[in-house]
Design goal:
mainly alpha, globular
Length: 438
């Protein structure tokens, strides 16, 4: 085994993965505080406004997630190849793209928000407050989207402790200002928005400071390298493929909710609660997928097939241990988790009927989640796009065949089949990924 492959140890995987897992665990806390502080106003409308406004903005920002994934894979490969100039150039490109997309979002806020309210209408009072909230927060869009690029760049080098520090800072600032602006100054919904606005811009400042080594010397403004046409084209192709793949994945989950609505409000609510189990699983596995992105990308950049294979096996092995633990937790405590999420006896009873699918989902989905990280690290974005298209088609067929016969059970089985399809189709393409390392 080569030195590079031998240096890939269990401790190195955990060093990269665990800070991301901890970072993700802080995300729900911020949402709970946002809801809690406006809840102290004693009115329902502000709670709904913050909830709807945050969901709409998160959904829009989610479309720009390709910037994190694309930057991670390409920067990891440049890092593994020892190409410092390209590593720095990728950060600058990501920042320019992030700022550009954020400015476009500011410019297009009126039609974007109008379209969002057409999809998810609410009362006039809630929509008015939500619009006030979003019109403040949208001005931090350049910072938020640019932070995707910074996060991907840091992951590429295995600097996930910096991402944890960044997340803790932003959440801490946000929570502190939430309490001051809403409870202290009585600014209401606008106070929550201003708190987030300040937290996101301060997060960008901290992110740039964490990347400060890239701005030492002249490489960061070597515009011939930064704007190299071939590299810009490659970045655009990778990001475009990842965006299409992500849209198809989102379409699976959106259609799942729409199909579930056919079975009535109780079943729809039960499905929504159970999807939170999948969200927990995704958050937990994100750290190990990020480790795969970094280590696989670095190994591919170094043209080291043994290191690439070892990176894939080690990260996936730890991911498997993690999901097996989650399946056990869901088996033992799933009913308790459901009861915490809702007080409706009808919804509780309905969710328990389908809990078995959540017990199975982490283990069934492990291959799809980990291979996503591996393929992102290798920037095999065309494979990701094509295999997602095939998996989406398989999901559609499963829906058409199973749902009319088995109802909501058929819907859940079709979703799990989509996980299997993603894992199998990407697995078939894995040998070609290894061959790419030479």
């Amino acid at each position: 085994m080569s030195d590079a492959a031998g240096s890939l140890t269990h401790s190195r995987v955990l060093k990269i993965a665990l800070p991301i897992v901890i970072s993700n665990a802080t995300v729900p806390i911020l949402g709970a505080v946002d809801t809690g502080v406006v809840g102290q106003l004693g009115q329902a409308a502000p709670i709904g406004a913050v909830g709807i406004g945050a969901i709409i903005l998160t959904g829009i920002y989610w479309m720009f997630g390709f910037l994190r994934m694309g930057t991670s894979g390409m920067a990891a490969q440049a890092h593994g190849a020892g190409n410092r100039a390209e590593v720095v150039a990728l950060l600058v490109r990501a920042l320019i793209i992030g700022f550009g997309l954020g400015l476009c979002m500011i410019a297009l806020q009126v039609p974007l928000f109008w379209a969002a309210f057409q999809v998810s209408p609410a009362s006039a009072e809630v929509e008015g407050m939500a619009l006030d909230y979003m019109q403040i927060r949208v001005w931090s869009a350049p910072a938020t989207v640019a932070l995707y690029g910074i996060s991907g760049w840091l992951i590429a080098q295995g600097r996930t402790r910096a991402i944890l520090a960044l997340q803790l800072w932003m959440n801490g600032v946000n929570i502190g200002l939430d309490l001051w602006f809403v409870l202290g100054l009585d600014w209401g919904v606008e106070g929550v928005a201003i708190a987030t606005f300040i937290a996101e811009w301060s997060g960008l400042a901290l992110g740039l400071w964490l990347c400060r080594a890239a701005f030492v010397g002249r490489m960061w403004y070597d515009w011939a390298v930064v704007f190299d046409r071939a590299r810009l084209k490659a970045m655009a192709l990778v990001n475009g493929d990842i965006m299409l793949r992500s849209l198809m994945l989102q379409a699976i989950f959106i259609s799942f909710l729409f199909y579930g609505a056919r079975f009535g409000d109780v079943t729809l609510a039960a499905n929504q609660i159970l999807l939170q189990f999948l969200e927990i699983t995704a958050y937990a596995l994100d750290g190990f997928a990020a480790a795969a992105e970094a280590l696989v990308g670095q190994a591919l950049g170094a043209r080291n097939r043994l290191a690439l294979r070892r990176a894939s096996l080690l990260t996936s092995g730890w991911g498997l241990i993690w999901v097996l633990c989650l399946s056990v937790v869901f088996w033992l405590f799933g009913r308790v988790i459901i009861d915490v999420m809702t007080t409706s006896q009808e919804v509780r009873a309905e969710a328990r009927i389908y809990l078995v699918y959540m017990i199975l989902a982490p283990t069934i989905g492990i291959a799809s989640w980990m291979l996503d990280g591996i393929f992102i690290g290798a920037t095999r974005s065309k494979d990701m796009r094509n295999m997602m298209a095939l998996s989406f088609a398989i999901y559609a067929v499963a829906i058409a065949v199973l749902m009319p016969v088995y109802g909501n059970h058929g819907l859940w089985i079709a979703l799990l089949i989509s996980f299997v399809a993603r894992g199998v189709t990407l697995g078939v393409r894995y040998p070609a990924l290894e061959a790419q390392a030479g």
